[in-house]
Specification:
The chain is built from 21 helices and 22 strands. With 626 residues, the chain is of the alpha+beta class. Strands 1-6-5-4-7-3-2-8-9 form a nine-stranded mixed β-sheet, with helices on one face.
């Protein structure tokens, strides 16, 4: 064994996290113990799993557990496990750096709001550092299972800019974390205080957690927790608080979950599941490559974190445990992919989550909170999970013209309940912002007739509408498409008749704008606006086209269709314009305004400004024949 001792600097992100954690979590400082016991439990789980293939790792020490010692006189608290342990390099990697994707994004989301930041810190999984809330020095001694006793290592830090690392001789495998408590945190060296915290936060841990009070009359180690994995117990035996604390242990979240479901399946396939819906979205939810999934156990033996095979990607926010009696103990991610029973389990667990969401949806305020956090990712299910399309459609929420606000709180059933007697379509508009959608000229005729329109402004909404297509027998219709089927009223004329009646004028405008538009038609959808642009039924929606082009995709050239409101004063002026240059300029201005209202970027903004200035000044500059 070398006597090598180094002083190393924390990674910049670790230093930032330490400061944020100490200030954000101070009001809830007692959770440090939950985090340390949770880490110790994970270490024991990992050893038990590795020992399946390498039984010699357990050696003679086969009873896994966690022991806690408090020393009131020395003002110390230690948490020791006989789990997998760490090598010197692992100790540096795990406690000196954060090798985790999304670190920068995580730090950017820190706001200074203690409640918000505490939630983020928990989900980022850096609970070890919470020890510095109550300790002015932390020491970690460890040896990895399978290594010789002279392969131990000690890590120490005061939680500031650096830490020391040195080689030590350690008889036992596993890890011992010792907290040198701050003077004003001496309460955490009191045995009765720690006893109550173990019962509060860690009773569900599946390994015995013992407590020893050094220097007290009764200094023998006593097992404090029930030492039974919570999901293996009957639902009638588990309290609501125990379910909440297990969720926090599982997810490292500091907030209560919205809802959970504990279920045991017997028969052809036997497994137990405990699933949770969090109250807030993880900071990396939009990273579809981030680790996600359920914690997998087989016959109560931990197998892997983040087993993504049990739920579809759009439910990646769900936390929980699956414990199977049928899968082999040596199951791997590759074997999971090949297991014939997995598809049935995946389908059943997916339905269970959707049923949980249906239950939340019955409480409008609770579901609004859920939708605000997870609505966009749930929409992915309409595109990816056709088997559950009907269940998912019931769970969708939208902003609509019914109340005009930006809140997505209206269901499709709400929409159907307000439909007019002669209406057989569900109308929607796609836009990049709520303001653009509400102000769109495409809504004018529908609004004048009291017909409601869904306002779709999320990036995924174009694909959602295409995948949904219809609901309860009602077809979804994009109001910005060429053919808009609105129930006719009184003297309404068909599109073909309107175009025929104004054929000469339309052809003249088309001649001016031939390089910019596919066609010019008289509009049946406008009331107050002079014009709008629509996409043909064969073309991509403009919002979709812009997104695809922004992502680097090359698309074939496409021109919109210009629809004009033949009764609008500006169009009346245009039709009566005899000067060719002014006719051409005004035709282009009408089109430019229609594109701006739709949210498009003008191809030549400077040319547009020149034309408008000329008209405002009533000059011929900029309105000559083009």
């Amino acid at each position: 064994m070398s006597d090598k001792r180094e002083t190393l600097g924390f990674q910049t992100e670790v230093r930032q996290l330490l400061q944020l954690m100490i200030h954000s979590l101070y009001s809830n400082k007692e959770i440090f113990l939950r985090e340390l016991i949770s880490n110790a439990s994970d270490a024991a789980d990992k050893l038990r799993f590795e020992a399946l293939a390498s039984p010699e790792l357990l050696a003679d020490d086969t009873e896994l557990g966690i022991s806690i010692e408090v020393d009131k006189e020395k003002r110390t608290l230690s948490v020791t496990d006989n789990g997998i342990g760490m090598s010197r390099d692992e100790l540096i990697d795990n406690l000196g750096t954060i090798a985790k994707s999304g670190t920068a994004e995580f730090l950017q989301q820190m706001t200074g709001d203690k409640q918000h930041d505490a939630h983020l810190i928990g989900q980022f999984g850096v609970g070890f550092y919470s020890a510095f809330i109550v300790a002015d020095k932390v020491s970690v001694e460890t040896r990895r299972a399978g290594l010789d006793k002279d392969a131990g290592a000690r890590w120490e830090s005061a939680g500031e800019g650096e830490f020391t690392i040195e080689d030590i001789e350690r008889e036992d495998r596993g890890t011992r974390v010792t907290l040198h408590l701050k003077e004003d945190q001496a309460e955490f060296a009191e045995s009765f205080r720690i006893d109550s915290l173990i019962r509060k936060y860690s009773d569900h841990i599946g390994f015995p957690v013992s407590l020893t009070a050094i220097g007290e009359d009764d200094a023998e180690a006593k097992v404090v927790n029930s030492a039974t994995a919570l999901w293996t117990r009957s639902r009638s035996e588990v309290t609501e608080d125990e379910y909440k604390e297990f969720y926090k242990h599982l997810s490292h979240d500091f907030a209560d979950p919205l809802i959970w479901s504990h279920n045991r399946v017997e028969g052809k396939r036997e497994y137990t599941s405990l699933l949770y819906i969090p109250a807030a979205a993880p900071f990396d939810m939009w990273n579809r490559e981030a680790p996600r999934g359920l914690k997998l156990y087989v016959q109560r033996v931990f197998i892997m974190d983040d087993a993504e095979q049990f739920l579809p990607l759009y439910l990646r926010f769900v936390k929980g445990v699956v414990d199977s009696s049928d899968l082999p103990l040596n199951v791997s991610r590759e074997l999971l992919q090949q297991n014939p029973d997995l598809s049935a389990m995946r389908s059943a667990l997916t339905r269970r989550v959707l049923d949980m969401l249906k239950k939340i949806a019955a409480e409008k305020d609770d579901y609004q909170k859920f939708w605000g956090e997870f609505g966009q990712v749930l929409k992915e299910g309409l595109v990816e999970d056709h088997a559950n399309k009907d269940k998912l459609a019931k769970l969708l929420r939208f902003a609509t013209t019914h109340n005009g606000n930006e809140t997505q709180d209206q269901s499709l059933d709400d929409y159907l309940g307000r439909m007019q007697d002669d209406q057989d379509k569900i109308y929607y508009i796609l836009a990049e912002t709520h303001a653009t959608a509400v102000a769109s000229p495409h809504l004018e005729q529908l609004r004048s007739r009291g017909m409601e329109v869904l306002l779709l402004t999320d990036r995924i909404d174009a694909w959602l509408a295409e995948s949904l297509a219809e609901y309860e027998g009602k077809t979804l219709v994009d109001v910005a498409r060429e053919v808009l089927d609105i129930p006719e009223e009184g003297d309404d004329k068909a599109q073909e008749d309107l175009n025929k009646e104004h054929k000469k004028f339309l052809e003249k405008v088309q001649g001016v704008l031939s390089e910019r538009v596919e066609a010019v038609n008289v509009s049946r959808r406008l009331v107050d606006s002079p014009a709008c642009v629509v996409a043909s039924d064969q073309d991509l929606n403009p919002q979709v086209r812009r997104m695809l082009e922004a992502s680097g995709q090359e698309l074939p050239e496409s021109k919109p269709i210009l629809e004009i409101n033949i009764e609008h004063p500006l169009v009346t002026r245009l039709s009566g314009e005899t000067d060719e240059g002014r006719f051409n300029a005004l035709s282009n201005i009408v089109l430019d305004h229609a594109l701006l209202a739709e949210g498009s970027q003008l191809p030549n903004p400077a040319e547009y400004v020149r034309r408008v200035n000329a008209f405002l000044l009533n000059t011929d500059d900029g309105v000559k024949s083009e």
